[in-house]
Amino acid sequence: MTMKRKNKIIIILVTLILVISGAFYWRYRVKENEKTLTIGLYTSSSWNVPNGHQYKVIDYAIRKFKQEHPNIKIKYESGIQQDDYRNWLSEKIIENKTPDLIIVPNRDFNALASEGAFKNLSSFMWQDNIKNSTFYASTLKAGQYGGQQLALPYEANPTLMVMNKTLLQKFKIKTPSYDWTPQQFYKLCHQVTYSNTKKKYYGVTMNYNWQDAQFAYGAQIFNKNDGKVELTSDRSRRAFALIENIVNDQSTFNVTSQLFDKGRVAFMPLGLAQYRTYTSYPFHITRNNKFLWKCTKMPGMEGIKATPIETTMFAISSKAKNTKGAWDFMKLLCTNKKVQREVMKTNMGCSVLPAVVKSTQAQKILDEKVINFHNLTIKKLDLIMKDGAVLPKFKDYNDNLEKLDYKIQNALKAGNLETQLFNIQLQVNQSETN
After folding, report:
1. Could you tell me which of 44, 49, 57, 172 has the fewest CB atoms within 10 Å of its CB?
2. This prediction's pTM
3. How far is the CA of 396 from the CAs of 26, 105, 400, in angstroms?
4. On the CB side of 341, how many CA atoms lie within 13 Å of its CA?
């Protein structure tokens, strides 16, 4: 055998050894990755309510997951506050250490989705026969971007309209029906405000804002195609007129939740988690409310979905090392009824599954520690969840909304919103093109 041929054989053998070694190493790394699942979480409540059991639901879900996947080790970094979470996650993305599974607050979803941070879940859902009807429509749509399902809903916090029933009775005003309109809402606020000459009582707190009014009339203030602001449509103008009338009637912009607590305001929008906290023992007792509470859905025109709903979601990182494990655990968190009941019980928000909300167990959860006259039925909560409004989906939505809110609030305080609408629209749209 010639030296040349020997060298050729040696090169081939070395190449084969390297290829086989590489294949074994790759397979080893894949198997190692499949044994570990990393999750990005924050410690505080999504809804800023007291929660002494930050990881209770996750740890409960991990125990259930381990029963089916005993070889997978789940890791999450504890102690990250919600306010710090976005920066923490951004650093992980830059360092290429993104967790496999990521909790995503409503306000961060658009920006992260636009940057390609998440995997499309449509094929996973199809393979496991998870239908859209499994979830409340608005919560599922919260995780959609660019025609793709990039996140599944985990927990929701719908806005309720809370009312001081005692105050309404004082002025001989009937409590509103479930399907009340913005016009009926304003009429009741006006009655309360003008039924007392010394202006000691008010119609609604200042946190019923211009965005709630836009939802009530079904106005689209952002163009679906390019995100441009549109404030001068008939629906938008009617919504702005509603807010202006309320502010003018009350002769003050600063009708706070503290005034509602003192029994001096008829209506106040409040998230479900806050409502459950405020009306339960011991928080209700410490707030010293001496009037009857009642709640209903937010006012809206017939056929309009007018309820703002914040939704916390889970998404799989586009760079996930254990995609299958991430999907299986996400599926458990978001579609398992026992886990979703635990979410509702521990986190004070609402399950994203109609099957859970409409169950007798859910009614027991809502009634737990609640003072008797603060009854919220599962039937009413189900109707409220079905009334969820869907927010626009473009990258700069939150930034644009902040700019818009600043200008509209200033115009409201100055008392010239109606005449400023076109200028505000022009200024916000021009700032986007510059």
Report:
1. 172
2. 0.89
3. 40, 15, 6
4. 13
Q: Say how far apart CA 409 and CA 272 lie, in whole Å.
A: 25
User: Looking at this protein, which amino acid is placed at residue 246?
Assistant: I
Q: Give yes or no for a contact between 224 and 419, defined as CB atoms under 8 angstroms apart.
A: no
**Distance separating alpha carbons of residues 48 and 334, to the nearest angstrom:** 21
| Single-letter code of the amino acid located at 411 | A
Q: Are 421 and 237 in contact (CB under 8 A)?
A: yes
Report the first-to-last Cα separation within the chain, whole angstroms: 75
Q: Angle at which helices 182-194 and 234-250 pack, to 10 degrees?
A: 10
Number of C-beta neighbours around residue 351 at 10 A: 31
Instruction: Classify strands 202-204 and 265-271 as parallel, antiparallel or unpaired.
Output: parallel
168 burial via Cβ count (<10 Å: 0-12, 13-18, 19+): buried
Q: Are 64 and 113 in contact (CB under 8 A)?
A: no
What mean pLDDT value characterizes the chain?
Answer: 88
Q: Three-state SS string across 119-177, please?
A: CCCHHHHHHCCCCHHHCCHHHHHCCEECCEECCEEEEEEEEEEEEEHHHHHHCCCCCCC
Q: What is the residue-wise DSSP string for 266-301?
A: EEEEEEHHHHHHHTBTTHHHHHT--S-EEEEPPP--
CB proximity list for 81: less than 8 A, separation 6 or greater: 42, 43, 44
pLDDT band at 27 (very low <50, low <70, confident <90, very high): very low
- Cα–Cα dist 125/271, whole Å: 30
Residue-level length of the chain: 434
